[in-house]
């Protein structure tokens, strides 16, 4: 059972534009929602994360928007750059921090074109 | 965050053989995990490597196929046994970073091709 659904599967955005990737979850017990960025040949790297007690978190050009009632969260990349071209995974986990198992979305391949 | 060294980075193996993948962390960590990422796919958790006790496997993964060792708080191995072409995948070690909002750190992975 797919517990975290991610869309779109691939995304092409012009340089300087806004990239938006969406995720939806089913399990209301999830309480930690990270986004990972993965470049070819590398392991995923934590980009930004949010807990459900806030609706938005911003770090530089990256913003997570969280809608608890809709069970959805999204990643916004402002002023997208070619260096942002990578695969992005949303994830979710349950429990007190330090003992969770991550459930990953299916990934979005983002391409930023000049 | 923790720095993970994973070896080998890639290998090509004959079917029926076994490969052991090593994960070394530069600091003591409580939780270590092994993931599989098939080409172009998402990450699937294989098991949690527990220090001093048997690993905890996820549904669909068994100890006979993926034996795991965790002799201390900085090191773990995953063995892929009796390999078949379906085992061709990227295998990733991940550790939890306790006490900070850094989440989980991943190694660069081992790209395994079974021929």
Short description:
The complex is a heterodimer of chains A (about 110) and B (about 120). Chain A has about 110 residues and is an all-beta fold.
Explain how this protein is built:
The complex is a heterodimer of chains A (114) and B (115). Chain A is mostly beta strands and 114 residues long. Chain A has strands spanning 4-7, 10-14, 19-25, 33-38, 45-50, 56-59, 62-67, 72-77, 86-92, 103-104, 108-113. In chain A, the strands form two sheets. In chain A, strands 2, 4, 5, 9, 10 and 11 form a six-stranded mixed β-sheet that branches. Chain A is globular, with a radius of gyration of 14 Å. The relative contact order of chain A is 0.34. With 115 residues, chain B is an all-beta fold. Helices cover 0% and strands 50% of the residues of chain B. Chain B has strands spanning 4-7, 10-13, 19-25, 32-37, 43-49, 56-57, 68-72, 75-80, 89-96, 104-106, 110-114. The model of chain B has no long low-confidence stretch (mean pLDDT 92). Classes of the chains: A mainly beta (114), B mainly beta (115). Chain A binds chain B through residues 32, 34, 36, 41-46, 49, 89, 97-102, 104-107, and chain B through 1, 4, 6, 30-31, 33, 41-45, 48, 92, 94, 96, 98-99, 101-109, 111.
Please indicate the percent range of residues of chain A in DSSP E strands (runs of 2 or more).
over 45%
Beta strand % of chain B: over 45%
Number of E-state strands of chain A: 11
What structural category do the secondary elements of chain A indicate? mainly beta
Largest sheet of chain A: 6 strands, mixed
The rounded distance between the terminal residues' Cα atoms of chain A is 38 Å
H/E element sequence of chain B: EEEEEEEEEEE
The oligomerization state is heterodimer
Radius of gyration of chain A: 14 Å
Q: Uncertain segments of chain B of ≥5 residues (pLDDT<50)?
A: none
Mean pLDDT of chain B: 92
Average predicted confidence as pLDDT of chain A: 92
- Residue stretches of chain A low in confidence (pLDDT < 50, at least 5 long) are none
